[in-house]
Amino acid sequence: MTALLVTLTGSSLTIDDVVRVARNPGLVALDPAAVAALATSRGLVERAIARGETIYGINTGFGKLANVRVAADQLDQLQINLIRSHAAGVGSPLSAEVVRAVMLLRANVLLRPTSGVRPALVEALVQLLNAGLIPLVPEQGSVGASGDLAPLSHIAMVLIGEGLVLAGGRTRPAAEALSEAGLRPFRFAPKEGISFINGTQAQTALLALLVHDAEVVWRTAIGAAAMSLEALRGTPTPLDPRIHAARPHPGQVAVAALMRELLAGSEIRESHRENDDRVQDAYSLRCTPQVLGAVADAVRFVRQVATIELNGSTDNPLVFDTGEVLSGGNFHGQPVAQALDFLAVTLTTLMAIAERRVERLVNPDLSHGLPAFLTRDPGLSSGYMMVQITAASLVAESRALAMPASIGSIPTDANQEDFVPMGMAAAYKARRILENARGVLAAELLCAAQGLEILHPLRPGQGVARLLARVRAAEDGVKPLLEDRPPGPDLERLASLVARGALDPAPGLPC
User: Fold this and answer.
1) Which CATH number does 4-199 carry?
2) Considering Cα of 128, then 129, then 130, then 133, what sign does the dihedral take?
3) pLDDT at residue number 418
4) Structure pTM?
5) Active-site positions?
6) What DSSP element (H or E) covers 318?
7) Angle formed by the axes of helices 201-231 and 488-500, to 10°?
């Protein structure tokens, strides 16, 4: 029997919930009290419609067409036409895990009483999710302003039995997939189409998954930095807690503390304590807590934005318990887009300092006694020369991608939507930068591990030794470099381990 993953209330969804549902099979349920509150809200909407009030998106056109009144007998068709006309996405499909996250977020927000939809709509969406049907959602086409209109419309198309789903590695007509799953197409009633597609859930789903993955990358980066410090025979003096207490940024304090823990018991440090003529290490070693601490503080802010957005009312118009139905702009994705851009910049910082440590590890002028390019036969062998070049290319690409998307508004909808945040563009860039960060960390882990092998039999700190053992694990790890071999497969293997959290030295440590 499939385990229950999450019960939605409309107000308590967490990033961990999103990750679980997106990446694991299981069932999502609806809180009965939240369903009852939504039914009450829907009654307010139906009474307003019965009174003949003019309400945006319920009995009017949309956007620039808001001043066009729609006849009462066409209100259901209005919602269907909205969905069909807005399913304008293009490009490669979003991954199954992202679409599952989008569906979960949309169900959670629609469950809030401010949405004013029928509980049956939320139930239909959750049934689709629980059946394992993944709508084909093109990743391009949203500017993130009146919500992620195109991505959400492609999901809505599947609900009404149109569009396509991904199943078994191929696309299938939605009607066919619904029938096989024992589900019937859903018929949208007044307000439900616009409520479904007005929302930031596509960009927010990507943000939530990225926050989780960025935290794993941050902790792994601390472990990689500790390995490099040992391989380069650096000093742990800059990690002294008194230094960080004198400038107590939370992330900086946390990074220094974890590095001290990883380096405890180092024989390598003791071997050069008395005869090292260096007064100070380079910034890429000495300032690791300050730089990765700033990364942590930024990721913590982004997590806060994501958490608020997971449980915020982002559809339009909103229904309140007074019976008023108010049109506003909570669908505007600027907070999410800016957070995604901030995440892109900070992950680029994380990988940029890691690449500088890779350079020090392979450069005989900077590595304090390690052989050139970490090969025991420099000249005949090139060792890890290309590893640093690969890392440099990933950093260069990420720097170009880190240009903010959220400042790149292009007015849309006949200039009615005259300032838009480009949140999905920010999400794509941040996702690519995260992948690049994993690659650069793979390069640092590969080189640092080789440096530690060269220093053997001196043993590194206990935490570093555990990381080294994990890098070398027989089944999915990387063997020491004894003679030249293509480093690409090793980098891919380590990047996969980083992505899975297998090289995370402190799982669960918050930023």
Assistant:
1) 1.10.275.10
2) positive
3) 87
4) 0.95
5) 56
6) strand 318-319
7) 120
